[in-house]
Amino acid sequence: MMRKDTSIYQQMRDDIIHGILQPGEKITEVKMAEKYNVSRTPIREAMKQLELEYLIKDGYIFVPNAEEFRKIFELRILLETHALKKAAIVFVQEDIDELRSYTNIDVDADENLVIETNDQFHQKLMSATHNEFIMETYEKMKGFIFLFSKTVINKRRHGLIEEHREIVTALEKRDIDQAVHLLKTHLEKDLTFTLHYLDL
């Protein structure tokens, strides 16, 4: 049943992210309308949006294969390294300090807290673009990125937070080439780690 004050899109999205709707599960308008006790119209609209966010594909909860993971990460790397180059130009010390504050956490801390802090770190980098079209594209990937981040953080990838700190240090020095190299390497390690644990 649908929770009060929550859109059907948001509830379906939350249920996918938190595993209530299982990876690979078949999704139909009729089935979801019964589950959430709503008409098929809002279900149809929610499914369209979730398809744009790479959470549903061909009527199933999307389970990407290795090649699809790599393609989505290729896009993520392009977006985040572009944002980092902009950050090196537009970020003032206050922005750098905020970014560093998201590295003051241990990878062995509470999983949800680490996931949230990790998201804040990357979201802060993306804010440097000041480009609503880039941000819209990135936002469409957020659900997928969150699901992927859960694997990286749940399995406690070694060096995750330390790499964030190194990126901040290079950014503060305005060493753009080094910062971009560190971020690209960081995301590639995340991808390799995830593919290993998902056995893809």
Automatic annotation (TrEMBL):
Name of the protein this chain belongs to: Gluconate operon transcriptional repressor
Signal peptide (UniProt feature, chain positions): none
Gene3D superfamilies listed in its UniProt record: GntR ligand-binding domain-like, Winged helix-like DNA-binding domain superfamily/Winged helix DNA-binding domain
Keyword field: DNA-binding, Transcription, Transcription regulation
PROSITE patterns according to UniProt: HTH_GNTR
UniProt-listed SMART domains: FCD, HTH_GNTR
Keyword Chloroplast: no
One function term, GO molecular function aspect: DNA binding
Positions of the HTH gntR-type domain: 2-72
Top-rank taxon, per record: Bacteria
Keyword DNA-binding: yes
